[in-house]
Amino acid sequence: MFSTVGAIGGFSLLSKPYSLCSSNSNSNSNSNDPSSPTPIAAASSSPSLLFLNPRRRRRRHGHGRRSSFFFPLACAAELASSGSSLDQKKEDEARLDRRAADWRAARTYKESGVIFEGKVEGSNNGGLLLRFYSLLGFLPYPLLSPSHSCRDPLRTIQETAKDLVGSSIAVKVIEANEEEKKLIFSEKDASWSKYSSQVKIGDVFDAVVGSVEDYGAFAHLRFPDGRYHLTGLVHVSEVSWDLVQDVRDFLNEGDQVKVKVINIDREKSRITLSIKQLEDDPLLETLEKVIPQEDQQMPTAQSLSSSTIEPLPGLESICNELLQEEGITDVQLGRQGLEKRVVSQDLELWLSNVPAKDKQFTLLARAGRQVQEVHLTTTLNQDGIKKAVQRVLGRVP
């Protein structure tokens, strides 16, 4: 007799004593007989022992455990995953809806021109990254208010930008393109809306020269709060009464200057400035502004036919044309002189600020450093003389 303990699928099985012989063996057979079947042979051939084969039993039991335990867990995991996917889908849809709504809001801000307070979240070489609700927009450095760069002119704009991270800036939306994912802001436009009403023609401002171009120089206007909110252009023709061939001979970036507002284009958000108009033009009234009479011996007024005065090249043709204008009865040349500075190489005619008196009016012709008085006898008023001169200059090459 032989006792067997088998581990089947994690369970312990204790078989009761049984014969290792086959069922048709003689019960009187001696178990110690070498001719008797070995226990293993008997076990492998006994149908009753096939069920107790540990490997076969383990596979059956293992399969049963997977069927009854792991399958429900897999179903639960799948259901949980399905629920998580649904939640994620809802979050994605909500996020898309929110972004779409924010793009609509950005377009509304652009169309209405309403100022938006945006938080600066970062910067790069080109500008600032500005938060607009769930969107991130861009504020290029050229569209920043000049107040930042004027605060410390020695610092680069990139260094200044780092200090702005985390602060809020008043801006306007100037581009909102959802398809191209372009959201662009301008602080200059917001500053114009806030401060341009404080600027009027004829106002004089302290200013700092910004960039200098061939056609003029940009100047940042200092407001009563001490900050520089707006920028205007000093055209090359308004830099100086002297002949200006290169603006950089007169103005450089960072120069402190005084400027006068001579024009405001509110539709285009432009301010035109002048430096020279803060000084009197030495030729606006009389020749004494250039050459005081006591310092120079000047000939008296002569008629056009006189040969004692050589007129400026081209001036004789202009005088003859002036005599063709209705209301002008006589043209006479007056004193000549030389300026200390060159205003223009070309021949120019300047009207005096002094109104016509006793039918007499004085024009000033100038070319290079040479100046020539031209006296008119006329019944025209100052505005009529101006129009007559304009017509003559249009006819004379």
UniProtKB/TrEMBL annotation:
Q: Where is this region: Disordered?
A: 23-44
Signal peptide residues on this chain, from the entry's feature table = none
Q: Where in this chain does the record put each S1 motif domain?
A: 113-188, 202-276
Q: Which Pfam families match?
A: S1
GO-annotated molecular function = nucleic acid binding
InterPro entries per the UniProt record, alphabetical? NA-bd_OB-fold (IPR012340), Ribosomal_protein_S1 (IPR052757), S1_domain (IPR003029)
Which PANTHER family does the UniProt record give?
Answer: OS03G0844900 PROTEIN
What protein am I looking at? Uncharacterized protein LOC109711096
